[in-house]
Fold these 4 entries.
Entry 1:
Amino acid sequence: MATIPIVVKHQGTKYDVEVDPESTGDVFKFQLYSLTGVEPERQKILIKGGQVKDDTPMSKFNLQPGQSIMMLGTPGKDGKDVLARPKEKIKFVEDMTEAEAAQQEGAIPAGLTNLGNTCYLNSTLQTLRAIPELQNALGKYEPQSTALNTTGLLPPLDLTKQLRDLYKSMSETQEAYVPHAFLAALRNAFPQFGERSRTGPGFAQQDAEEAWSQIVTQLRQKLRVKDSPEGTEASFIDKYMSGEFTSELVCDEPAAREGGEQPVVSKETFLKLNCHIDSSTNHLRDGIANGLSEKLEKRSEVLGRDAIYTKTSKISRLPKYLTVHFVRFFWKRETQKKAKIMRKVTFPHELDLVEFCDDKLKSMLVPVRDKVREVRKDEEDIERARKRRKRNGAEEAADIPGGKGAKKEDKKDEKKPSTSADGDVEMGETYKTDAEIDAERDAALLAAKKELHALIDPDLAKDDGANQSGLYELRGVVTHQGASADSGHYTAYVKKAAPVDAKTGKRKEEDGKWWWFNDDKVTEVTADKIETLAGGGESHSALILLYRAIPLPSAEGTIE
């Protein structure tokens, strides 16, 4: 439909405005904002036919070409700033350095060059880079100043330093980066990654899970963080990426228990959860459950011989970042290779691990988890109601006699306010405006978020490197394509982080898309691509999952 030219009067000035009848009030208000500097929420538009609300279709007002309307309102403090000359000179992308361009919203992250069967390493590095706290900690890392540090390595061969430098270099370019220095440091620290291929020239393919584990082990030893300048140092990995099991070891034979043998309870740290795959494993939950119970043979002092024991583990600490490993590779004696289990095993974008926790931790997590779900439902209900009102408003405008955008005829038989016997006017029903309803619901939602924060256990609240709800969101996936660990191809999928608003410094909403890192090739993909990584053949299947604890609101009810 063609636009309608009208005149808007504001503070003695006339503005020519083209109005699209198909648009809504909020679009019209932003048109006026661009001309007058008066923020939409500070505008009052006088127009025959009703008040201009954000969700009101402009066709409702049956505007005529050349019609004049009036707008009241003055710019707020921020509005005046908008019209002021920029304090800093605007710099266009073509005038930026490569490092500046790489920091802009929408920039494609750097890929990594394959240096000969190093896709296992590239995919691992790209997924670990999805942890912002790791990048911050690496940025502050400095090797020991002595010529030889305590590990006997010269600084250039310090794996942690090389990772710091690698990530810094990657953040300053959108081109593929060549990780020569890091690869040299890795092969120096772990010679197995320098093994030559038996089937041809060059280096052999390696297992990405082994590379992940060795890099994390090195970081656990070297990378330290402090909560405050006066605080004590702690291992970054222990704080953010390690959990704790509470395990119970019980002899399967009743004779041992009857003879007085007591269960052995112990605690141990874990850096990843294993998803064991057998003929009954269809979902990640099944595999994790399999990994938390195992049989082992050891000597029983009560029985005086070896016996079978069952070790059952429960989680007593959940880290902020959780690594899950699909145990897809096993040693096949006939081929002398690590063969691959092809079975399809699905995994969720949101993972709930509360059922696998011990009773103490479960009692801390359940109230928070349940409140999170309650708040989400409230948010969905509010958004659904807003969309319904907007849709109904558009339908009402379309149902006006004479077609969409035509004026309603005045009803002569409209009811007038009735009066009582003593002459007083009787009050009819009063209705709340959409804005009042939204304000009430938003206030209730904010109160619920504050209540959610208050439910976090004080001990868990002090541990900002732990998960405080038991819920995780998927952030990264390392995949493998092929039939064995010693061949095939590895890639990585990393969820796009929300861009940071340059003015406020706050993060915007995520768009739900992912980056696919295939060595030096980086492609944007939609979330449904992740659903195809469950396996079931030699195509790309998930080998490592990186989950992050869902963000929770602060005491003020806001979520960063």
Entry 2:
Amino acid sequence: MSDSWEEHAEGSKTTNLNPSAASFSFNPTVATFVPSGKTSETEKTDQDPGEKESKEVPSAVAVEDKMASASLKDDDDVLEDEAHRKEKIERVLTELDEEDGREHMNVVFIGHVDAGKSTTAGQILFLTGGVDDRTIEKYEREAKEKNRESWYMAYIMDTNEEERAKGKTVEVGRAHFETTRKRYTILDAPGHKSFVPNMISGASQADIGVLVISARKGEFETGFERGGQTREHAQLAKTLGVSKLIVAINKMDDPSIVEDKDAWSQQRYDEIVGKLSPFLRGCGYNPKKDLIYIPISGLMGHNMKELVSKDVCPWYNGKPFFDILDDVEAISRDPFAPFRMPVMDKYKDMGTVVMGKCESGVVAKGDKLMMMPNKVKVKVTTVWRDENEVNAARPGENLRLRLAGIEEDEVSSGFVLSDCNKLVPVVHQFEAQIVVLDLLEHKPILTGGYTAILHLHSIVEECEVTKIVAAIDPKTKEKKKTKFVKSGSICIARIAVEKPICVESFQSNPQLGRFTLRDEGRTIAIGKVTKIPKK
């Protein structure tokens, strides 16, 4: 592969030409050059009897001029298409605002195993009317039969028998709820370290994270100490684009920590906040802007929809959980950017249906898109937003699209549905800025030849670090040439994959430009794509 690289600066403009305008080919049957003063056989038969036998053939310069004007004409068509596209997007956005102008947000629940993520998510659905009393009573009976009475709320999110029997979330649970101000999708991520890849797929779709912490004696310490999932989940969330974190300190009503008259312990709450804040600051979160702490009881629903009683928690002066969610400022997304939707899953249903989150641009029924990297043109025949069929959708929505023109076996997770005029780049290698977290004991250095598993949007691929370009000094930001780095370092590295993958630079499209590297079940590095090879 060529060693020429391009860096996509923010706001840089790239000219995208219509494929038909960007390449010219001469068909011998169409463009036949013959000596001046002579005519080809086809020309003779096409001539009128009244015309002269000899016909002047255009010169090479004239042909070139004609080609240039054709090119300009095609370019004009591209510009007209762009103007038409903007007009169409504005029309779609107006229709969507009239239909339902509320912003949509994906909320991922993360944290150590048994912190109460599924229970808290289930309580949210119950409080917003997503689950009726009869269903809750059924779940209570089932949990009692298994001698797990406190698990019944988790059954709302943990739907399969394996999850209910063991009390551990395996797959990323999905559910929807609404407030008067916003629409939400809950992504209930598994907390067990064996299912971190599933957690990554959930967090990669999230806009905001809820880090659930168990306040019970011993449980917070287990989750937070080295090897606990509280640390890894918080680091991964930041890498995967979760810019705001609500830290829900759960189980505040647990007998191991409550004070007189079942009052919630401020001492325990302050202790947890004091230990978490420096660590989360180290992950890249600004404690004043990006972090909100709240004490809750997920099982009982205290301090969630309504503010907790002053008798129970006299020292908390903040807002309840739902109000905090609604107050999180809107995430800026560009509806006029080229359409990008990484494919999370696919199935067959009267055509090929693909699932994913629209990361940029808008999509409407009838749109013609390109499935990358295999370059198959497709047409959108149906759009579902959450469970509802709609005519169009804005960026940030979880979508299912029924496509015509492609078979199910031609699509894989990690493929990207892309705007036809501005295709997503497809590469075999890229350059990235990497923060090395914790390398394995028996592989203590990162150098050329190191292999790991790359998690980038919905891609999970084996990769190789082919070269350490430079190490970066964390304080001065100076780059220094080196051949290897150790845990805790920041470096520029080149990463190669065997199969072509869809990647954009972090500055062009953050959702398609951030990644994690994992090795033997541990997250060893996080990074962002800085350069991709020139075409």
Entry 3:
Amino acid sequence: MLFSLKSPNSRRNILFNPHFADEDIEAYENKFVGHSTYVWNCIKDLGSIAKMSDVQETTNQLLDLNLHENQRSVQEMESGLRSESEDLQVTIGATVPTGFEQTAADEVREKLRSSCKISKDRGKIYFDISVESLAQVHCLRSVDNLFVVVQELNDYQFKETKEEVLKDFEELAGKLPWSDPLKVWKINTSFKKRKTKRNKINEPSSKEKIDNGQGDKRDERDVKKELTNNALESHILDYYENPAIKEDILTLVGDDLASCNDKTDEKSREETEPEVLKFRVTCNRAGEKHCFSSNEAARDFGGAVQEYFKWKADMTNFDVEVLLNIHDNEIVVGIALTEESLHRRNITHFGPTTLRSTLAYGMLRLCAPQPTDIIVDPMCGTGAIPIEGATEWTNCYHIAGDNNPLAVNRTANNITSLLTKNQIKEGKLSWGLPIDAIQWDVCNLPLRTGSVDIIVTDMPFGKRMGSKKRNWNLYPACLREMSRVCRPGTGRAVLLTQDKKCFIKALSGMGHLWRKVHTVWVNIGGLHAAVYLLKRTPQAFVHSSEQEGERTPW
């Protein structure tokens, strides 16, 4: 049910326009792709409960294997933390979406109870933690990449010539306190799940189809069984009729099995031969007064690191990534703790303009969602914003809408994939997320006037989607319709756009309905964009036809 409401028909009563004909409302409801836990969905799907119960026991047996293995890994990790690094304090660096450094710092203080420093180099923050909190750091929603700081050198004095500077870099490698950061890297690696690439899991299946192309084609289910070492029964796959769910289950279970096999192989190798780590050095440099290039700094510093540790250099298949961050006269040396950006957590089906999950989190946090809030993304694209909202703010109700049916399908598939991933991880069936997806016209939303608490959306830039010319008509119409459905006095909107001139012009004509509270300047793929936080004024929405004395259908 809709948390603050009691009726199973609450969504129809509160959200849908009461002047819509019943058949029109039913048509819109049929467009919804339900993934919520609400009563109306459960009643609608009573017929499928018997089927679900038939396979639930077998499914749980499969998922319990994963859960048991994960619990054992966590126990081993915690034991290692206590024995190897008791009371070890380290500084963690994190890259965040530019413009949302303060948002990330607030999340760190809130969730880790740690002080946080925002770097002069945009898009980075630093905070101190005990190693026991390392797993919590990976759960932060606002950070892209993590690294442990080896040493921070403020007001570093560069020599005048390139040769002298590069010589200093070589000498610096042997003077740094590597011991504790490497302990943190080792602990991080011990409990971080190494993901096997999906193409490796799918490769045998493709090969079999090619080999048997002229003979008897093997049953697809048999091939899938082999990929998971007979871990999945065929009737479990039959239950998950959506191909996206099948693919994710096979990939996730296959990842676990591959991970277990990798660990066994690694342990055997460690017993027979000493470990030689492979590494690379990545230099990130900002500033105009440097007489050297990033590649030159990485080359000479990396050579000294190799000489110091006797590691093997490998630019692609490396174990350790050493970071050399240079911003004007500030140098920070670190060791990477993430193999890929943490923003790749929700989206598996991408569109032409998919938004980063970390940026979506920052936008949602700007509007401070409260329990029972109804949060709408009227131009959802692949659903990055509402999916992030439904994951983090589960006590709110999220609606994802778009006029493009392909976008709605991508959103539905992303929701499905995330649910599958979560239930494999948690070891039990999931009843869903508080989110629905629907196809609609953003300029004529099928929602009641004043029924929405928060609107968060990524508006068309006029680059890959739409055009600058169309935005001059689209933006005013969107703002007006948003002001109609948003609650007067308490409603708020967070809107991202790169077409700032068009947006400001459209907003200037809505001063009686929207008040600009705050602007965050962000960098989106090299484009200078802005996130606007708007507050809905207390003035009631008046339809244009009412001003002319005509009867309005709203």
Entry 4:
Amino acid sequence: MVYSRTAHFGTGGNKSIGFSFRVLVSATFIALCIFFTFSFLFTSHSYFTDHHVIGSDSGAHEFESIRRSMLALKTDPLKPRFNRILKQTEDLRSLALVYASYARKLKLESSKLVRVFTELSMNFSELMSRPQYRTLFSSDASPVNESVLRQLEKEVKERIKVSRQVIGEAKESFDNQLKIQKLKDTIFAVNEQLTKAKKQGAFSSLIAAKSIPKSLHCLAMRLMEERIAHPEKYSDEGKPTPPEFEDPNLHHYAIFSDNVIAASVVVNSATKNAKEPRKHVFHVVTDKLNLGAMQVMFKLKDYNGAHIEVKAVEDYKFLNSSYVPVLRQLESAKLQRFYFENKLENATKDATNMKFRNPKYLSILNHLRFYLPEMYPKLHRILFLDDDIVVQKDLTGLWKIDMDGKVNGAVETCFGSFHRYAQYLNFSHPLIKAKFNPKACAWAYGMNFFDLDAWRREKCTEEYHYWQNLNENRTLWKLGTLPPGLITYYSTTKPLDKSWHVLGLGYNPSISMNEIRNAAVVHFNGNMKPWLDIAMSQFKPLWTKFVDYELEFVQACNFGI
């Protein structure tokens, strides 16, 4: 019984002591919290007051802002709003000063930017120093005037808006990556415009070059009218062939053209510069449409006694589609679509491809040069001349050249890596790659001296047919007569001295006049032909001085006006 009571008393005493201890600990904790809180507040107040007296700027200002924010919760609800405005103002002012300093460092031409940013910073400082806003910076005890605060906020926002706009516009001057990207975009846009302009220019130039001038069309029509009016005067039908046309001892020339005035200039210039014009024979071949005009043109004057034969390509009966690959290819529907159903928007996509889409590259007149031995079976040598050349010297010296068994005498055009076989033939094709050297030097058509006996011996026409048949799908070369010529006379071409044949007067304005004066033949290859308005004025007189302006038909068509 005694044991039981004693145990019960012991348990109750322990509980009372535990409870008293917990109350004591809680009271002590609360007292400490209150003490540290008031200690922090008074310590902060003392620190900021002393710091303000000393005159600290940046760090003290931040602590001051924190202190005000804490006290504002107890004193004035407008204080936090004022502090936010003040911080925004200070941030923008500092940013403006940084941009002004960076602009000076970069030595930008835009000194205006330096001035603008400096003025922005000064405006913020001036705004904060105005008398009406001084009350906002007074002691914390005084309440903030809401109307004054609103006015300050309004002006600060306006300045912030202007500052951000100026910084946004000027950012490009400071951001190198942005400037580089903008420059790249500009270069890309300009290149696009340049490419488009080049294609349009090439297409316009091609139209100008291939169109028939009104004066040239007029001349052909008037000459044809004369031919119809007096057929007996100009026709050679029924007359025996003059022996000079087949005499191998004379100097023979081949001219294939449908341009009446151009062909007459070639003959005119050659005969006027020949020492013995009577020993020169010119074989002019045209199409049936221009035959009458050509016949009249070459019978209107004597040409210093030179012999001139005018024929149509149709007069050579062996030139038919069963024998000539070009004529057979022209009959294919696929090739006709390629040339004659070509649309403008497709033509201008590729200026180079557009050039070769001209049907003249499949004209039989262009390919007659590969049939010279068959057209003139009794001749041993012949000089081929394009219709856009002018002869400036006597050419009989060509017949004295030792051809060393070669077929084609021509002036080479390669220099450096330019005008090599690789530029004319498709060396990705195995046949071309296996047969030819891509670095082989190319030569020029326009004035070519052919040894017809060597031609027959080398069977060059058969070689031409072989390759032309393989190129029906244009996989070996694009088009034109130079690529098949380079193939046909590969290793059978004798280089001639460059003074015999100077090229480029139809596209290269930088050819020296000394080089032109020393040339036996000058060639207006290119789009700027001398009979066109787009001809280069410095070279055109070389051609016009051989035009027969005294002929009434030429005068009637206003040539040269």
